[in-house]
Design goal:
By secondary structure, this protein is α/β, with parallel strands linked by helices. The chain has helices at residues 30-39, 53-61, 75-86, 106-118, 184-192, 197-202, 207-211, 231-244; strands spanning 4-10, 24-25, 28-29, 46-50, 66-68, 93-97, 123-128, 143-146, 156-162, 173-183, 217-220. It is built from 8 helices and 11 strands. The strands form 2 sheets. Strands 7-10-8-9-11 form a 5-stranded mixed barrel. Strands 2-3 form a two-stranded antiparallel ribbon. β4 (46-50), α2 and β5 form a beta-alpha-beta unit. The chain starts with a strand and ends with a helix. 42% of the residues are buried. The mean pLDDT is 90.
Length: 245
C-alpha cells in the first residue's frame, strides 16, 4: 500500500500579513488549527515545515511534529527540503497543505489522496466552484482552468493558473485551493527545476509544473476554505470559527 506523508509549509514573513501563522482564532494559532485538522485525516504522519523557531515552538507546545528548514523559494521547495531532512523511509506521496487555511475539509483531503493513489497520478490538487463573479478579478483568489468539467470523482488536467481573469468566458474555471499531492519523484523533479518567468511574475509556484509540461490533475471539492492572506481575511475567519464554537 502506498504511504503518504503530510507536510505543512509555514513562515512568519508573509508580505501581506506578517506573523499570520501565530495569529489566534478561538485561543489557538492558525497554524495549529491547520496541523490538527491535517493530522485528524489519518492519511499519514504530519509535520509543519518552517524556517521560524516561533512556529516550530508553537507546534511543539501542542505536542505536534515540526521541522526547521532553511529559507526556500516557495512552499513546495520547502516541502521537498523538509522531506529530505526527515529522511523517512518508504514514503510514496507527499500531501502539501497550506498553513493559512484553518477550514480545510477532511473528506476532500482523504478523497484526493485515495483517488490520486488509485489512479497513479504524478501531482494532483483541489478546486471548488466560484460563486461570486467578482472573484474572477480578485487577485487573492487563484483560479485554475481545466480541459474538462470536474466533479468529485472525475479530475481533469489543469490548463493554466491565473490571478485575474478579465474576459467573460468562465467555462471550466475554478477556485484553486493550495493543496497538492505529489508523487515523491515528481516533487524532486520540481525542486531541481529553475523557477520560470511566469512563476516569478505571477507568484504562482504551480506554473513551474505547467511551464515544464508536467500534468496537474484537478479534483473538485464542494468546500471553499477561507485562505488567510490579509487582515480582513483573518477577521472574517476569526468571526466564522468563533461563532461555530
Amino acid at each position: 500500500m502506498s504511504k503518504t506523508l503530510i507536510l505543512i509549509p509555514s513562515r512568519m514573513s508573509a508580505s501581506r500579513l506578517p506573523g499570520k501563522p501565530l495569529l489566534k482564532i478561538g485561543g489557538k494559532s492558525i497554524i495549529s488549527h491547520v496541523y490538527l485538522a491535517a493530522k485528524d485525516t489519518n492519511i499519514g504522519d504530519t509535520f509543519v515545515a518552517t524556517e521560524d523557531e516561533e512556529i516550530y515552538n508553537n507546534i511543539k507546545e501542542i505536542n505536534g511534529n515540526a521541522i526547521l528548514t532553511n529559507k526556500a523559494r516557495t512552499g513546495s521547495d520547502r516541502i521537498y527540503a523538509a522531506y529530505k531532512k526527515l529522511n523517512l523511509k518508504d514514503i510514496d506521496y507527499i500531501l502539501n497543505i497550506q498553513g493559512d487555511e484553518p477550514f480545510i475539509d477532511k473528506e476532500s483531503l482523504i478523497n484526493l489522496n485515495n483517488h490520486s493513489i488509485k489512479n497513479n497520478l504524478k501531482i494532483s490538487t483541489l478546486a471548488s466552484q466560484i460563486k461570486n463573479i467578482d472573484d474572477y478579478k480578485n487577485e487573492s483568489i487563484v483560479k485554475v482552468s481545466t480541459n474538462d468539467k470536474i466533479n468529485l470523482n472525475k479530475p481533469s488536467k489543469a490548463k493554466y493558473f491565473f490571478r485575474n481573469i478579465d474576459n467573460k468566458k468562465y467555462d471550466n474555471i475554478y477556485h484553486h485551493i493550495g493543496i497538492y499531492l505529489y508523487e515523491v519523484s515528481t516533487l524532486e523533479k520540481f525542486f531541481n527545476l529553475a523557477q520560470t518567468t511566469n512563476e516569478k511574475k505571477m507568484k504562482l509556484e504551480q506554473l513551474r509544473f505547467i511551464d515544464n509540461n508536467i500534468n496537474i490533475d484537478v479534483y473538485f471539492t464542494k468546500q471553499s476554505p477561507i485562505g488567510i492572506d490579509t487582515k480582513e481575511d483573518y477577521l472574517r475567519a476569526k468571526i466564522l470559527m468563533e461563532s461555530k464554537n
